Amino acid sequence: MTRDIGQDPVPAIDHRFIHAAFTPPEAREGWMSDRLALSDALIDEVEAADVIVLGAPMYNYGMPAALKGWIDHIARIGRTFSFDLARGDVPIEPILQGKQLIVLSSRGEFGFEPGGPRAHMNALDPAIAACAHYFGVDAADIQTVAIEYQEFKDARHDRSVVAAEKATRELALRFGKTTRQSVSADLSV
Questions:
Q1: Mean per-residue pLDDT, 137-159
Q2: Is the pLDDT confidence value at 177 over 70?
Q3: Class of domain 2-186
Q4: 50, exposed or middle or buried, with CB in 10 Å at 0-12, 13-18, 19+?
């Protein structure tokens, strides 16, 4: 399943979405189910997948709005996480489990990897990792492949593309043999 949220972005959540999502299913009015229909479909796609592939460019050092909107529809009480204050300071518990996440990213500059000269400016990778539990992904199960130096358009960019293509082929071989289905949320440009 592929969903191009760059070309067809999901709408932002609003107070009506929150109202509907936090109303127990048996108490929902018709409009609430209608408001949650897209969210249900997106969650169904994630539930059916073993591997989730995100094409996520870094925009101004962070997450594109379309990706944030997609995540907001996936992060849903009773569907992808439970909330119980009896668990103390950690009331959120993921419902989905055992999935892999591959992030294919483009970054105009370079050095955003851990230990890199711009690592402190990378707000994309930490944000994705912080939300991964909503998809059933442990932070240790995130693979990131990034193309860098796009703005420079020089040999470093060419080398980055070659390295990213090789890493992507290796991941495809690795995960292609073991998965029943993948879902892709594509934001690439």
A1: 96
A2: no
A3: alpha beta
A4: middle
184, pLDDT greater than 80? no
Amino acid at 48: A
What 26-30 contacts at long range (C-beta under 8 Å, 24+ apart), as own/partner pairs, is none
Among 80, 23, 15, smallest CA distance to 46 is for: 80
Q: Say what the pTM is.
A: 0.90
- Cα distances from 136 to residues 52, 93, 97, 103, 144, in angstroms, run 10, 10, 4, 15, 17
Calculate mean pLDDT across residues 74-92: 96
Q: Compute CA 55 distance to the chain's CA centroid, rounded to the nearest angstrom.
A: 9
* d(C-alpha 120, C-alpha 138), whole Å: 22
Instruction: Give CA angle at 150 (51, 8), nearest 5°.
Output: 50
Nearest to 112 by CA among 60, 176, 64, 171: 60
pLDDT exceeds 50 at position 188: no
Nearest-5° Cα angle at 90, 86 to 91: 50
- Name residue 55's beta-bridge partners: 104, 186
Mean pLDDT, the chain, integer: 93
User: Directed axis angle between helix 30-48 and helix 65-74, to 10°?
Assistant: 100
